[in-house]
Every structure is written in C-alpha cells, then in structure tokens.
User: What shape does this take?
Amino acid sequence: MQQIEIFAPDFDLAMTLDSGQVFHWAKAGDGFVGLIGKRPIYVEQSGDVLKASGEVVKPDRLDPSSLGSIVSDYFALDHPLAKICASFPKDPAMNAARDFCRVLRIIRQPKWECLATFICSSMKQVAHIRQISAKLRERFGEGRTVAPEVKADGGSAARSTNRHVIYAFPTVERIAAASEKELRGCSLGYRAKNLLATARQIASDDADLEKLAEASDVDLRARLCKLPGVGAKVANCVMLFAYERLRAFPIDVWIERVLRQRYFPRARKLNAARLRRFTEEYFGHHGGYAQQYLFHHARKTKSESTGKSKRKMGSLSQFRG
DNA sequence: GGCCAGGTGGAAA
DNA sequence: TTTCCACATGGC
Assistant: This one.
C-alpha cells in the first residue's frame, strides 16, 4: 500500500470525474475509488491537495512509475489551465462556461478503454454509459479491491475491512473472445456488434492503438474512423481523452445545441461541414478544452430549451470528420 | 407512453 | 451532395 499527497492547484476532482469523460469512478468515503489502467486507486481532495492510496504490488517493468506520477499523469495536473483558459475566445457563452469549469481537467485515459467506452456511448445518456461500463467490467474484467481511505499511518488502509471491489476494464483480447450475445447482455444493444468487430480488428493486429499515437491529427482521425462504430464524434472524443489531441472538438447533441443557440441563432443553412469549420477555426489550439467546458456547463445548467426536432439534429450529426 | 440520449452506417432523394 | 432512417435501451 502506497499513499501520496500531491499539490494540485486549479483542479476539481469531483467535477472532472463527473464531466462525461470517464465513466467508472465511484464515490466512496470522502473521495472516489476507481482504476488507472489496472491499478486500483482511492483518491480524495482537500483544497489544493490530492491524496491517493493504492497498492503497488509488482510494478511491471514497462511501467515502474510511482503512484504519485501515475495519478498526476492521469489527471493531467501538468496541463497549464490558466494559459489554456486564456486562449479561449472571448464571447458570452465561452466566458460563462469558463467561469463555471475553470478547474476541470481533460484527463489522460488508457486508449482501448476510452475507445471501447465511447463506441458504447452512441445515443446513450451519461448515466447509461456508466451502467454499460460497469457491466462490461464486472462481466469480463479483472476484480481488485481497494480501501476508500487515506490513513496518516501508511499501512493501515491495507488492513481496512471496508474494502471495495472494483473491476478493470476488460482487455481487447477478452472482448474479442466474447460473443455478440454476451456483449448484448451488458445492455449494449446494437453497439455490441461494433464493439466486438473493433476489438477483433485490434486484437488481430489490424490496428495498433499505441502506435497510432505517432500519427498526425488528420491521420489519427482517419484511422480511428475506419473502426466499426467509430465516426467523427467518437474519433474526436478518443483523440481528446486518450491521445491528448487538445484541439479535437467532438460535436454531440449538446454541443450542437449550444452552437446553434449561442453562435448561430439565426442561421438557416447550418450544415455539418460549416459547423466543423467554425469550431476548428474559432476555438483554436485548445478547442477540445473549450468544447469540454461548453459541454459540461450546458449539461449541468440544462440551459434554455431542450426540444429540438430529432430530424434537424440528426442531419447535423451525420458529418464525417 | 413519448421523448431523449457524448452517433453510425447505409440507402434514398 | 444532402437527407433520411434503422438500430437498442433505460430514465424521466
């Protein structure tokens, strides 16, 4: 059992974990339990200090990192938030979102876990995605335990009787070995076929997610979009949340609504290509952060109307990256 | 019970 | 090119 404290200014743990980037962290004790890759972690925040505990059983040779660097890296504590916020365009919608979210960070997720989860996300609410993630983990993932507490006396948490069982996201190989029927048993619906096909492509070495990190934004997006169940929206989410492409700007129903209402209130012809061009040019270098702030702000304030005709929304969602 | 959800892929117009 | 529509599921 290792325990650490990290100085974490400009960071809100709860807000970040509740912002629709990642779907498996659960409240426990005064903080949250979850996994970073395969490592079970408990983390809690008090002010500018992040406390974490987790077992470092046998750090494998490929990843000998300490708990502190694992946590810091995952929550992207090195992202210069003040600078990023300063780079946002100055307009009423963006200003409001920035004021609301300025301590929300875009975390660095494991690639397969992020890709698989967002393949399951289409036409699902965040709460449903959490359910699907939990079912996939419990059914196919490896179970671990973690104590939801940080003790002053280092080793005591390890002996805690109040331990939570948490499950790692299943490996590519495990999903690839499953049947579509088994996956549908996790409430995936029509998404099961896509998840299975993508897992099998990756498992059979047709796509190497780690190697794709070397690709340019354009190439990376194109490669991701070749995977079953991955279109422009999912590709941009994976680029943003797993490949640290902070410019990637996913356009989902929430963002589309914000753009329509706040940036193009009177536009008639607002097709997907025009929206895409606008977001790429207007929000700039850290567009992904801007997008995440607009998304989270809209979702948490449930702003204005929510009733747009499905047909209209659908037509814009068609755009290919 | 209808509407909506961090969409995609393929057919029809 | 653009528009339309099927595809599952669960909460409100």
User: Anything to note?
Assistant: Confidence is low (pLDDT under 50) at residues 303-321 of chain A. Residues 126-140 of chain A form the longest helix (15 residues). Residues 122-125, 127-128, 131-132, 184, 187-192, 271, 311, 314-315, 318 of chain A lie near DNA strand C (CB under 10 Å from a C1').
